[in-house]
Amino acid sequence: MPKRIMERHASDNKYLHRDFHISGDQGIAYVGKNYGDEGVIDYLTRFVKNYYKPLIEKIKAEGLSGLMSHIEKIYEIEEASDALSISLNENILTVEIAYCPAIKFMLESGYEPSRWYIETTRTVNNVIAAESGFQFELIDYNIENGKALYRFIKE
Fold this sequence. Notes:
Low-confidence stretches: none
Number of helices: 5
Distance between the termini: 67 Å
Oligomer: single chain
Order of helices and strands: HHHEEHHEE
Mean pLDDT: 94
Number of strands: 4
Strand content: 15-25%
Radius of gyration: 18 Å
Shape: globular
Largest sheet: 4 strands, antiparallel
């Protein structure tokens, strides 16, 4: 039998990073316990300004529709499109989350999210909005399952 060569790339494999949510929360909890609430907000603010820089530039160029497509893609990757209800009018992007797939995974794994996990919604989105020239408003958030209602508003 002749030798066969198969070419594979990491991108060929389905990637679910669910364990990352636990590790990320443990990091946030460490910062919170050692540096307090302001430390968590400062850490996440620095993270967002660097990691999400390409997204921020996309939002600046495309407006709220660029942000909407990003959010939809994230929930598709998380295999939780059923949790997302999103609507866009001219000036407001409204996002309703029935449950947070990260929190669902953490709880199913026997891990209880830290009290600072809310900041991965509140601070992260607030900084993305501010850096993109929009306002962010967290209207409702259920710490137990991540159910949330928030919106981005054109200034």
